[in-house]
Write a structure and sequence with these properties.
four-stranded mixed β-sheet; about 525 residues; alpha/beta
């Protein structure tokens, strides 16, 4: 982010849940371009991430950035009832995992759900998987079928995390103790693996409906698979699943799964093997969650809009982050200027400029009419038309998540002033969610004209615009700051806040104001 440069906010955590590999029959979780299952080609490696600024914050958030507070213990698995023990081929030597019964419940319900939903959506009977769902682990003998090779080894599976193979109609997932899925389960809960398996099962649906035979861009089939995973997650959250039920925390874990494995920022998602940004992946998941499998079925012919994922040369040099500072070309210098320019000058909503006041505590004692939660980074003082900026909190967000984490919390303070100016009588969670939408509406206007969204940025504001990774950092910020559960009703949980923010980015400011 910089005046005259892109708001380049790089992050490595976006969803991959993706189609890759040297054969169209393989669809997998990992975004790395590698050969067919069983291939051993050291020249095929993941694209190198852009160089980081050695003096700036790391671009990759640590696991602690989004960690669920579980008292030092792994989050509990979702509640499970009767399961089909044949739903997964565990093999002869499998070490037990705490989430084994949960994964059996997932695969059991996915089979039940698709047997009901597929005829409704596609008008024909559902054919169950011909092959098995295989757990792969180092101790397992070489008894997993191959996909483009005679057999699948554990080393092969580690490259993919999980994959679906159309030749043999089977699914394999990494069940190793040190694998990425086990790590995600320890950090965020077993629901992360449930989302992965629901996504892979969706590729089996695409084989049945002819989607994998259409030579579509990878990003299109991946978007639909993410959508179907979201639709199934909604079923589990509603209590409709026959074998398990998801809590709010499990839904959040599913969102996190959609942001933890992906293309590095800088990859063109429209090339074969491309996957899209975390913003796009979470968005497709939410469309499925909110609108159901029938909407997902439409996405092969009517895909959702996509955000850019490519770095410019300038982004590579900067590592994707503007300097945290108050000068004209620093983050806290040009962002308030642009927010004032948009809301005050161009839309004439807030009128007078909002002035930034830097504080170093979250108490807000200097204002008797503070709107917002200063402990989260910013708040608006209505009586003085000042934005209080909690510098220690902002610095922490910047270091952990990147510069658009700061941009996000700054923009929500301006959104508070906008609501006041238009006479909004919302309060509590509803007000906070509209702030998220208005923040997204501002972001849309600083989206470069050659990117995928239809509304161009305004000509007078060419000095500020966003690029690859920005919106992914916004998603991470929401995951970190949102209410833990839907019943908290304070500022909205992560799902609700992301949904509101995406609505503003996709549909613009007018769609947000229309909610009043």
């Amino acid at each position: 982010m910089d005046r005259g440069r892109l708001l380049a906010l790089a992050t490595a955590v976006v969803v991959a849940l993706s189609a890759c590999g040297g054969t169209a029959d393989v669809t997998s979780e990992r975004a790395d371009p590698i050969g067919g299952i069983g291939a051993d080609d050291p020249t095929l490696t993941a694209p190198a991430p852009p160089p980081a600024d050695p003096d700036g914050p790391a671009n990759d958030p640590t696991d602690d950035d989004l960690a669920v507070d579980s008292g030092g213990e792994a989050p509990a698995a979702p509640s499970v009832v009767d399961v089909d023990t044949a739903a997964i081929n565990f093999g002869p030597n499998k070490p037990p995992r705490s989430y084994d019964d949960f994964l059996l419940a997932v695969m059991t319900d996915l089979g039940v759900w698709w047997s009901q939903v597929y005829p409704e959506v596609y008008g024909e009977a559902f054919t169950p998987l011909e092959g098995d769902v295989y757990a792969a682990y180092p101790e397992r003998p070489d008894d997993i079928p191959g996909c483009g090779a005679p057999r699948t080894t554990y080393a092969d599976v580690q490259q993919y995390v999980a994959f679906y193979c159309g030749v043999g109609d089977f699914i394999v997932y990494d069940d190793g103790e040190d694998g990425l899925l086990a790590e995600l389960a320890r950090e965020y809960g077993a629901a992360t693996i449930g989302t992965v398996l629901a996504h892979e099962f969706a590729h089996a649906i695409q084989l049945r409906n002819g989607g994998l035979d259409r030579a579509l861009p990878t990003i299109t089939t991946e978007q639909q698979a993410d959508c179907f995973a979201g639709a199934w997650t909604a079923r589990a959250a509603r209590g409709d699943a026959v074998t398990l039920r998801f809590s709010d925390g499990d839904v959040r874990a599913g969102l996190i799964a959609m942001t933890k494995v992906s293309d590095p920022v800088g990859i063109d998602q429209f090339e074969q093997g491309g996957h899209g940004s975390g913003f796009d992946r979470v968005g497709a998941f939410q469309v499925g969650f909110n609108e159901g499998p029938g909407r997902c079925a439409e996405l092969l012919d009517d895909p959702l809009p996509l955000m850019p994922n490519q770095f410019t040369a300038g982004d590579v040099v900067t590592g994707g982050n503007a300097a945290f500072g108050y000068g004209e070309n620093d983050l806290i210098g040009f962002l308030p200027e642009d927010l004032n320019r948009y809301w005050g000058e161009e839309l004439d909503i807030t009128g007078d400029r909002l002035e930034l006041v830097v504080v170093r505590s979250g108490d807000g004692d200097r204002c008797d009419d503070l709107r917002g939660d200063l402990s989260l980074g910013t708040a608006w003082c209505a009586s003085t038309n000042e934005v209080f900026f909690n510098e220690p909190v902002a610095l922490d967000l910047y270091a952990r998540l990147g510069d658009f984490a700061v941009g996000y919390v700054l923009a929500t303070a301006w959104s508070e002033a906008v609501q006041d100016a238009v006479g909004s009588d919302l309060d509590g969670e509803d007000r906070a969610l509209l702030n998220d939408c208005l923040t997204g509406g501002w972001v849309k206007t600083v989206t470069p004209i050659d990117f995928a969204l239809p509304q161009p940025r305004l000509a007078s504001r060419d000095s500020v615009r966003i690029s690859a990774g920005d919106l992914d950092e916004a998603i991470q910020t929401v995951l970190a700051l949102g209410d833990a559960g839907v019943d908290d009703d304070v500022i909205g949980n992560a799902f609700e806040k992301i949904d509101a923010f995406r609505g503003g980015v996709i549909d613009g400011t007018d769609s947000c104001l229309a909610q009043l």
